[in-house]
Design a protein that fits this description.
The structure holds two protein chains of two kinds. By secondary structure, chain A is mainly alpha-helical. Chain A has eleven helices and no strands. Chain A has two domains: 2-51; 54-292, MetI-like (MetI-like fold, Orthogonal Bundle), CATH 1.10.3720.10. In chain A, α5 (124-138) packs across α6. Chain B has twelve helices and two strands. Chain B has helices spanning 2-61, 64-69, 85-116, 119-134, 137-155, 165-189, 193-201, 206-217, 219-235, 238-243, 261-270, 278-308; strands at residues 73-74, 81-82. Chain B starts with a helix and ends with a helix. Chain B is mostly helical. Classes of the chains: A mainly alpha, B mainly alpha. At the A-B interface, α1, α3, α4, α5 and α6 of A face α1, α3, α4, α5 and α6 of B.
Amino acid sequence: MAQKYAVFKRRKEARKLLGSAVYVVFLVAVLVSVMGLAVLLIDIITGGLPWFSWSLITNYPSRHPEQAGLWPALIGTLWLMGLTAAFSVPVGVGAAIYLEEYAAKNRLTALIEVNIANLAGVPSVVYGLLGAALFVQWMALERSVLAGALTMSLLILPIVILASREAIRAVPRAYREAAFALGATEWQVVSGVVLPSALPGILTGVILGMSRAIGEAAPMLVISGLLFVTFIPTSPMDKFTVLPLQIFNWVSRPQDEFQGLAAGGIMLLLAVLLSMNAIAVYVRNRRQVKSDE
Amino acid sequence: MKAQRLDDAKVADTKGSGKPRRKLGGLIIKGILFLCALVSILTTVGIVVSLVVQAWGFFVEVAPIDFLTGTRWSPILKPRSYGVLPLVAGTLLVTAVAAIVAIPIGLATAAFLSEYAPDKARRILKPILEVLAGIPTVVYGYFALTFVTPRIQDWLFPDMLVFNALSAGLVMGLMIVPMVSTLSEDAMLAVPRSLREAAYALGATRVEVSLRIVIPAALSGIVAAFIIGLSRAIGETMLVTIAAGATPKLTLNPLESIQTMTAYIVQVALGEAPRGSAEFNAIFAVGSLLFVMTLGMNLLGHWVVTRWRLKY
């Protein structure tokens, strides 16, 4: 008996030791990602800070790195974001309302749902090919900011739809039933009750979709090419460039100065992205506080 | 009596004139919303049609069998050759390096978050992973080219080329860790508490519960997370365009410069290839192959989840 207990005790020690070892392995793995992010940010800030100035933001691109800036890319990004939001928000929210509030449980609905899940996994460069064929060539929109925005809208549509659906699903059934009991029509319930309560969640989804769109370079590259843009777009049919494309342009030059400019551009891009994410988190948290009441 | 009849008349009135209009309005709204949902189907149709139509122009000039089995990709230099295998090999090489990084780290991160981390650690770690997932890929390209490659040259392989599959793959691994870990963690959190508690009651340690109860029970979701993460890596474009090079090559050596399928598409989009030439249409043939590969992997991932999910 005592002998058996000794064996048990010894094995217990070994198991405990193994446990601590594996815990350390897990911890190291977690630290790798955290360190990776830290090193990445430090690398960008040390590379970009000397180049980060007002003239970087307000100047036009130039062959002389000390005069180069990304003003047209910044304005191009604003154009692209505005048009993309104008297309993707109504269509995305409309599709979410249809799937949550109207759709019958049939094969067509199931097909649409599977299809949206798969679209979320299509590589972004393939969306670029779609845009290059459909919008640029067949619809003759040429390499315009409109063609870019339509492509980008299709790209972020799955994100907007999925987030909006979740937000709409989270609205308690009782709200709808109360409105129906008062004689409201289906649309009155949706527009007067469901949408207002789901708004913060939908907004979070829209911001996440837009922050995806703001950083996407590959599809825009296929559509607009790598332009040396010395003008800012004044209509949806103008040619354009966007922040990640200007950054790519600079990264792909061999001189150190342009690498520095690229890092400066990345700092601006990340600042915009992080503030968008912060807004999304703020909106999300506000909603949580409200629903606790 | 009279008053009641008046009420009845009112009811009849709303039934008679008001309701059909309300009904018609409702139908129109429903129709518009349905069209919004239909856009997603049309997108898929649009992708398939544009890829097929444009790739058709390419396959008239190059036999599909030569495209799929050829081992030399030389669309510009004569003699021209359109064998896609070097591009596929380059893509898979980078993806394999990414998998070596992302699978163990992603799995360990998921296990840590789901089984070990106190609430406080989760509240710090989850946003960090979200930030990692949200960083644009062009930024990862900059990082691979200007930081990771020089460090590898300094410390490990001084002869490594500036553009290489290794650093692109390593950074891509870091990039897809959040995706792999989030999806795996979701699968682990779905394992019922009772399984863990039963194991603890039998005297299992925390590691034994994690490795022998939770991970096996969540295996279908974890495998799906790997597959979906790698499908993301295959379709990734800017990172490999910036850091992995533009040299189509059939090689297993990650220190060499290669070209991925996506990087070729970008190269042609940047160049002056005239629309309608075989060289231009080749990007749609490559794009079709890319679309089929990623779609296949995503479907496989969903299939694994639904087919092998343990029901509790």
